[in-house]
């Protein structure tokens, strides 16, 4: 390992350690995830509210657009009083169609919350309540509530966790109060001449009314993860991101989950035949033609004749290919003497940049490029204009990778940028 590599490794480890520092070590310099309760004193059997608050997310730590917190507790001593958390005042600044809650469940000793706001929405800065949840204390003693994961991502720095401090919670619970028994009433003086009471005749026992047959009982819960209903948003489809079989995999992609959720609700994405989204799969040209047609709401073209002999008439992508060709968004490829569309070929990042520029009718001209691998490329100017307008980013600071393919998650993010486009280049 070289000296430079060793230095980089030391810096990386230091950043990771700082990001998990307790409150006392860095409260003056770092923003904080603070876990608190609402009781001065707790007794066994009482209910309290646990609250997650964010403090000091300003300056270099402001503009948070994605939140994820995982809290661990002992289910033998704490009982959640709800299957979902209550959103805090942070979310009162946004309309319900400006954010999506992708995780919101409490079960088996874990509270897991994740949410993202859509691009174009003012991100979070400052102090505020992220969420709260009520718990019942089942036993006395010391109870520890710990943060197992906390991720806060800035809108202009996707995929990077903001360095922050974490304050865990320790509760001291007293035994339940026991009520003192009332003293027994003194016996009255006995009557010297008691009158014997007649034996009462017991009333006839009523005939029991047979209980109605309730039918078969519901099957017991399997104890799996409870996915709550998301915030209601009016969109043309009822399909939600939680409906995908690979939802758990999608939810881990902080930088793309909001885009995938939005495009799913818009009906742009539907999943494959097994109801999987497959976020890391590459996308073919015919698949991209289909989703760009849906995003731009292109009308079906019946008069345009497809001149590509590799596009089967009546195939599932036939209408989309006709639409994008008619609107001059996509062209064919010449292979020898044949002009083909190559529907099964994987679409490249250069091709996507070109299509986005054409869709927005942006004027293509020479702009300074930060990329060292686009010089002389056929799509260099389209890549530069797409980059300067925030439609697409590089693989690294100076590398665009024009001939590499894009994943479905990456395409989702690009399409949302297209929907929310505001020109940066005049």
UniProtKB/TrEMBL annotation:
What organism is the protein native to?
Vulcanibacillus modesticaldus
Quote the biased-composition stretches of kind Pro residues, using this chain's numbering: 181-219
Write the record's keywords in alphabetical order, separated by commas: Signal
Instruction: Fetch the CDD domains from UniProt.
Output: Type_II_cohesin
Q: Which GO terms describe its biological process?
A: polysaccharide catabolic process
The name this protein carries in UniProt is: SLH domain-containing protein
Give a yes or no for keyword Nucleotide-binding in this entry: no
Q: Which residues form the SLH domain?
A: 243-306, 307-365, 366-426
């Amino acid at each position: 390992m070289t000296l430079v590599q060793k230095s980089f490794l030391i810096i990386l480890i230091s950043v990771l350690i700082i990001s998990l520092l307790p409150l006392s070590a860095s409260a003056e310099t770092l923003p904080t995830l603070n876990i608190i309760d609402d009781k001065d004193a707790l007794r066994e059997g009482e209910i309290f509210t646990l609250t997650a608050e964010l403090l000091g997310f300003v300056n270099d730590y402001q503009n948070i657009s994605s939140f994820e917190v995982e809290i661990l507790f002992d289910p033998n001593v704490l009982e959640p009083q709800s299957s979902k958390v209550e959103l805090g005042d942070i979310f009162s600044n946004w309309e319900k169609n400006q954010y999506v809650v992708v995780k919101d469940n409490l079960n088996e000793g874990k509270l897991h919350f994740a949410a993202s706001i859509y691009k174009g929405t003012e991100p979070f800065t400052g102090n505020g309540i992220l969420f709260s949840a009520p718990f019942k204390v089942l036993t006395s003693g010391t109870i520890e509530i710990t943060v197992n994961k906390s991720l806060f991502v800035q809108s202009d720095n996707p995929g990077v966790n903001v360095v922050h401090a974490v304050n865990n919670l320790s509760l001291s619970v007293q035994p339940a109060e026991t009520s003192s028994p009332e003293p027994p009433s003194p016996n009255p003086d006995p009557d010297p001449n008691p009158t014997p009471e007649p034996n009462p005749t017991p009333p006839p026992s009523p005939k029991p009314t047979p209980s109605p047959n309730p039918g078969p009982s519901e099957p017991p819960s399997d104890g799996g993860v409870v996915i709550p209903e998301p915030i209601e948003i009016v969109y043309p489809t009822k399909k939600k991101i939680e409906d995908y079989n690979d939802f758990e995999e999608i939810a881990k992609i902080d930088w793309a989950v909001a885009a995938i959720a939005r495009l799913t609700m818009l009906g742009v994405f539907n999943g494959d035949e097994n109801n999987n989204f497959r976020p890391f799969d590459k996308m073919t040209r015919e698949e991209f033609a289909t989703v760009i047609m849906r995003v731009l709401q292109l009308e079906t073209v019946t008069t345009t004749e497809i001149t590509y002999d590799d596009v089967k008439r009546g195939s599932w992508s036939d209408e989309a290919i006709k639409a994008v060709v008619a609107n001059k968004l996509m062209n064919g490829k010449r292979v020898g003497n044949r002009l083909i569309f190559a529907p099964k070929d994987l679409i490249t990042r250069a091709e996507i940049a070109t299509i986005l520029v054409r869709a927005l009718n942006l004027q293509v001209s020479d702009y300074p490029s930060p990329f060292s691998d686009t010089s002389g490329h056929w799509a260099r100017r389209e890549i530069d204009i797409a980059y300067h307008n925030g439609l697409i980013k590089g693989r690294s600071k100076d590398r665009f990778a024009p001939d590499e393919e894009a994943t479905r998650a990456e395409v989702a993010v690009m399409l949302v940028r297209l929907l929310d486009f505001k020109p940066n280049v005049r």
